[in-house]
Queue: 2 jobs
Job 1
Amino acid sequence: MNKRILGAFLTVALGAGTIAGIGSYVASAKNDSRVLEATLAGTLQTPEGNLPHYTLDMSVYPDSMFGGHGKDGGPHPDYVSYGPVTNFTVPAHSAITITVHQYDSGETITNPFFAKAHGTMDGTMTVNGQRVTQIAPDTVGHTFTLHGLANGKDQLFVSVPLQYVPEEDMPEEGYSSSPSVTTFTFITGGEGEYIWNCEFPCGDGSYARFGAAMSTMGYMSGHFNVVKA
Amino acid sequence: MSDLQTKKPQWWKSKDVQVTAGLWVVFSALIAVIGGEVNARPMGEPASETMANTIHIMRMFTWVSAPVAGLVAAIAAKALMQKMHFGDNPPPEADHQISDSPKATALWLVVSALLCLFALIFGMVVLQKDNNTLLDVHAADINVTGQQWAWNFDYADSGNFQSADLYLPVNQPVHFHVTSLDVVHSFWIVQMGIKVDANPGYITETAVTPTKIGVYDLRCAELCGLLHAYMQKKVHVVSQQDYNNWVTSHGGTI
Amino acid sequence: MTTVMNHKNPTASHRPIMERLNVVTALALGVAGAVISYYLAQKFLPENTEGSVMKTRHDQVVLIGMIGWFIGFMTGIGALVGPFRWLMGKDLSHDENMYLAGKNAGISRYFRYTTDHKVVGIQYLVITMVIFGVGGILAMLIRTNLGHAEGGWLHPQAYNAVVGIHGIIMIVGTIIMVTGPFGNFIMPIMIGARDMAFPRLNALSFWLIVAALAPILSSFFLGGITTGWSAYNPLASQSPAGMDGYIMFICIFAISTMVAGANITTTVVRMRAKGMTWTRTPIFIYGTVASVALALPAFPVFFLSQIMSGMDRALGTTFYDTRGGGSGWLYENLFWLMGHPEVYVILIPAVAALMEMAPVFTRRPLFSFKIAVMGIAGICGLSILVWAHHMYMTGWAPLLNAPFMLTTELISIPTGMLFLVLVGTVWRGRLWMTVPTASIFALLLNFMIGGITGIYLSDVPADAALHGSMFVTAHFHYTLMGAGLTGAIAALIFWFPKMTGRMIDKQLSWISFWLVQIGFNVAFMGMFMVGLAGQPRRVEAYAELFIRGNQITTGAAFVIMTGMLVLLWAVIYSWRHGQKAPMNPWQSKTLEWTVPNPVPLENFETLPIVTSDPYGYGKAQS
């Protein structure tokens, strides 16, 4: 094989290799592959019959020092973060109950639509022990909003507000001893990949403030996979 | 007498012109038919008259451009139908010396201007039809709010109840008032062929009459940040009865 | 013959500062400037005011750091030497100018502030290849992500940054790909001049691009950008600090373009050889001038739009923020005022280059030179009246949709004239089949598809279905890449012998041509399909029904990649080992082929006198 042809092959191989290398680096960077799977908790009577019941526990912290991003809080220690991780897996055609401990403060939400519960099993959620359909828009800390592609897949849209910890109860250091607790249940359809994010902008940017932490996956947004049971 | 001067042969009788003309007919037909199909198929069945008009106009434009494209293809093909010279040196120069042809140029310009005019008029007529749906006083009003990265709807004519789902009654005109709470999004119902940007601080309008019962796609069509790809929703077009049931079950009024 | 000035003592180790400046000192001073200004900014800038909506301090620091890089780099490369000496009243001497022109300097002259237009042309060629390399890698990342069923290989943030930077890098690359290498190297020789009107500005325009590359590449490490290449506000104001890299990149590049525009225009208007009237000026010259003349009004607007974006980010102004009395529509208008003429800035030189090659490879006169000029002029004139067709769907001014539809559809008429010229030239021509010849036919195909899909998009009702979908992406790739890049590659192969003294390897260039053209058409046809079916653009994940189309496009993209890499090798190999080229390998009649290889420093022994247009093929028989 003469030098010309060999050189051509080598250039193609080198080019492809460079792309593969850079690609792998970019694909792995910031991609948090840690996933929390829902735990089986028997069955639940639902309007769609007796379905397997799974539970998920998560929390919302006012910074990233809770350990989920490493000892020193990772690259953005001051970012609000959900934890222990931000990727979740739940089975299809099941009832999922999620409990969220919310440790951050809050204020009046920009879009009161998200101060209501949507897509939950009976349209309600339990906030600090009380069964309600919404909370006062000026007491919202964050939201948990689950949604996805308009796809051949089943549409899933679940959104609940997560009540704030009042300013008086926010300690100087560490996390509040009385976080708000929100529990809600919803029913999954078929398999699919969905996304969840907080719909209460509080980051950097223009008045809408969806920049910074809000636009960095692994803090207030993540993957939500519905898989075969 | 004795006219020894040979008359110049009429240009349309020369062989290469005839071959090119034949190719032109063939290519134009192929482009019109195949091009028309290739455009229309992926767009699927229209779910509104607006979309049906759009599919129709694209097919029309394809047919109208086909003769132009066909001519270019025919001349190019004819030029390639010669014994190819590949060497390091050029072949002998062409016999043809014509460096201008006012007639051919004038014809080309007139035809392209006419085609342009046709496209324009056709487009304006359809645009006017679409604009008229905006003026329909019987249209139901729905306020659409886009925010990063979800849509929510306020059914203004049904008691202002809010939902993250979009349900529409079939064959009823609906008027969308669209805004955004943060960055620019775009409200696009794919199969109905309507789209308008959602801008912060402004309300923009679009209107449509869904004509088919079914489930369609609402996709955000303007990059709006991290989860733009997921800012999508299903649109349900249902019978009037089903729509009324859905509204009342969500706390709205008919 | 020595070129060192102040040569009182031949063995003196003291060389003038001017002689010490090169790309190494530029990099060193640039980094120093960046570090020092960054440090000073960090130390002395006030904290963000409590309760302010935007945290502006970080952007201030980043921007100041980048400005420090820019000043350091441009000082280090020697851009300030000329102005400084002029201010001192001791303008550069003839010897110093000869030094700057790279007389007897060997390869080192490519790595410093050299004013010889031939050196600048080669520098532009290399930087264009680097830019396309980076843009190409990013393109392959995009396609690999979209080739995964439903996407999702790259993180959404990373994906958005890759898409945005791919876009702006490729736009800049396609803007300079013909006017940079060939507008600089070939154009002055083609008009019978010894150099350009402003040789120092020529060097400046090149080194500004090099300086601009650091900010844009650094944006990857500053969090990337959240927007596409259009950098729409208000989304851009939310973007991490990478956006400041984009802003700096554009500001510096805009200056480079304006400088080059002034240079090229003045050169062509004032320095054509005796006897080269406007009717005897080659069409490529018209294309180059038209392109930069369009850029001259367009790029300052882009520059301003980015300054305001930077001010919104770093100073808390609200130009684009409705809550502060501004408007996102202001940004969109400013951007597209540039954005539309700019695509013709990209396209016209490539088409003009192919029109220049067409008579050479068909051995007959260019069909209707006058129509070619009118077509170019018509496109330029109309292109500044169509910008809001990018804004049909914004809701900004629905009443203006119809007038803009009119102006946009009118552009098809002068565009059609360019087609007429090309098909008229191949008609009854005696084809000499080379890659440039084949490129003419490839352009006819690709530009036809690009043009017709543009007609669909120009129609407001159809745009309601197509705007913001992959259909648009496919359309502009067909025009800018299918037509533009094809013309640029043909220009490279055509003028390579004059620029390097060697012929590009035939076999490799043919292989590259077929791989790129076939790969390109399959890839972007597939993209039209998914766009028509409803896939939005700039999405890293998509619905099931688009899987097949995306896989086809991705597969074909790998074919394009292979073709471009083969071309890269062909260029590298031929530059060193290619067949040595005769003075006029294509037996073309334009002036650049009358000078020997390598082209002497001052191009011509005696300046030529022109007596006819350069398209007298076939007429020789009459």
Job 2
Amino acid sequence: MSPIESAITLTVNGSRRTVRVSPSTTLLEMVRSRLELTGAKECCAEGECGACTMILDDEPVNSCLVLAVETDGSEITTIEGIGAAGMTPLQESFLATGAIQCGFCIPGMVVAATALLERIPRPTEPEVREGLSGNLCRCGGYKRICAAVMAAAGGAGAP
Amino acid sequence: MSGSGLGISAPRVGGSERVTGAQSFAADIAIEDVLHVALVHLDCGHAAIEEIDTSGAVGIEGVIRVFTAKDLPDPVPRFGPRFADRPVIATVETKYHGEPLAAVVAVSKEAAAEGAAAVQVRHKELPGVYSIDDALDPESPLVVDPALRSGDDPLAGSNVRQRWDWGWGDVDSTEADVVIEETYTFPMVTHFSIEPHAFAAAPEGNGIAVWSSIQHPYFLQGTLASLLDLPISKVRVHAPDPGGGFGGKGFPKYEPLVTMIALELGRPVRLVLTLEETFQAVRRTNARLQLRTGFTRDGRLVFIDAIEDFMMGAYADIAPRVISKSSYFAAGPYKVGAVRAVVRGLMSHTTPSTAFRGFGAPQMTWGIESQMDAAARALKIDPVDIRLVNLARPGEEIVPGDRPADGDWRQALNIAAEKVGWGEPLLPGHGRGISVGLKASATAGASYCILRILHDGSVSLIAGTSDMGQGARTILTQLVSENLGVPMERVTLVMGDTAVVPFDYSTSASRSTVFMGSAVVDACQKAIADLRDKAADQHHVSVEDVVFTPGQVSVDGAVYTLPEVLNDVFGAVPGEIIVTGSQRGEGDANHPLGGAASFYEVSCTASEVSVDLETGDFELVKHITVADVGRAINPQHVEMQDEGAAVMGLGHTLMEHLILDEHGRIVNLGALDYRIPTFKDMPSTMESVLVENGDGPGPGGAKGSGEGGLLATSPAIAAALSEATGVVIKDLPLTPERVWQAMHGGDEGREQ
């Protein structure tokens, strides 16, 4: 709508995309509304809940706090890009350990945990708790989410 | 029952969609040409609206129109589950911080938000009722216009919306060796579903289609039909699985507004609340319990004399039911000879409180159980023993003449004690607490479903329960699989569309497994009967000669699989078995609650804490919950629900508290300032144990579950803190600051 929209080009889940965005559009809004990838969720809109987590150039970010224009030339992975060729062991592990309740936080959890395991392939339980502490689950599934991540990493902790 | 379905921890139905991001929640559903709505509200609680100037907003590019009360029927229609007291939009005044008084419709979310910020409201802030003391003060303004209350309501000139006087026996003539007199407070807390409430509406034919993250789609359908004077069949509610509900998404909130806007504009519109707006839309009823509890020397509870004040908000919503249903069980799971309880439901200029997991029982349990611990200390009786003495045994009444105890609650308590290491030596700075909570389940209601066995033997189940994380899809699929012998992956569940799915009363009160589960079992039995009849006709034998076992039918010794027998009975032209199932609870008009509870949900919590005696900070070393569930149809699902409830209980026990300023504004509005438990708040060890005695009314002896884990959290942890520190705290949450203050003498931190 805005006359000052600008075009940005970025790679989303391996595909090059060019999108026109206004200076105030967030990465989350762009991905959900323009690219129609609704796996990332909006909850707090201030970087506290992690429901909108995406991977931006290898780093997990709260996409509600990133302006779309800043991502020109970047590489983005959303939940849709994780396990696109079949579920990852981490996703399988979430299912097996019963880590999923309502599921609204789960895309953000999976993205954050995927990034965590990239950084620390065999984390300790405190490392998982610390690494995911920016992701809120009101269903209170923390114990099982933690176990799911540990199990996927081949560590102990599966119930 | 035999077969594969019951007692098996089958993976979550819908789990794959949730873990891949494919699950569509209400805000994710694409609606063509949809317009966006942003709400306008004031930065104070109670205010008179003098003038709304929308000119700034309508000049913004993309803004289509601004709606205020003047754009809606006059008088503005009102609705609500108990009283029709909530206007579709604020009219002459706002009654709580965040009450919408205008709605800006625009082509984009950004333009709508920009428009909302540009609406100018001339208003006058008015004195407000922001606390229990305010509400009881005869000088305070009246929240509800007496004209809106029934003419013979003796309380119409006060802020007491409803009063209940519960009691039995004679408190005054009951002798007690020790009387504990204390006051407890329970804070305002908010649901904080990670999915903010989302609504949309679009004209459809000569009716309306509505999308909502609602738990009770049929209640919404009825409300809209009544407000719009439409036949129920012309109101179609799409209810995608909610992203967490916890009671907060039970009853209609802004759907009527969105619907009226869509009809007026003749276009689809959508409103997605911000998290801050959800804080302003729903909360738990806060409470102050003044309790006088009498015990004999040997720890027997002999009377309870109580004044219990519950602060509802600006509109009643379902809060009167929350209050009456929880306070009616004045002694929780205990036997007591005499009760006198004066219970008041108070109006205030605050966010309307509504159902919230536990439905008033966490508030009641905080008081009842803290009194048990006070008595145990006074009488030097072990906290486990004093509870064992008083807990109702199976068949004993907890309210005279009402449903007796339906579980072995002492067994649950003993398991909790054993699991937490009760009686074992404690490290310095450590303490343990144990507690029991009771919540009454649904009293009345009805669930219907349609079951189709398709001609290849696969099954379509059409059932109106909302799966908001509790796993109803999995449980109902397991029940079909179990009863018909059809593999779970060949059963498809259709939910969430009132145009095709039959009526279900609500998704609340932990009722889905018992009510809808029983309806599904009923449908399976009818399908089997129909199949046997058809096979008997086809083979010219009596129906007794047709034997159904899950997955197969034998006729005169010949065994057919389901697809074979369907092919056999229908011949060349395919057909299907179509049946309905139902489960109704009629209630009892003479019962104070409209009917006895269909079961009790009883849970024990045992906790061990380690306190830093310097700072008052503490951590949970061990946190055990024991749930009496009758039968776990899916143990993993039940355990994860119970653990989740326990974590939610940690929230209101340890950290959560909506704080109001003198203008009635929520100070800690949003995720940054209102903390809920995170990974870092988890107990070092947490375990959920299930007691399964098959003594529930649901399939296989199941009771409902999933709320119990938070009923007794607060008193268990507070008792553990008391043992560790020697101080007793009577206000929640148990923040380190409050603990430190209590340890350093003084009641400065007490809630008034």
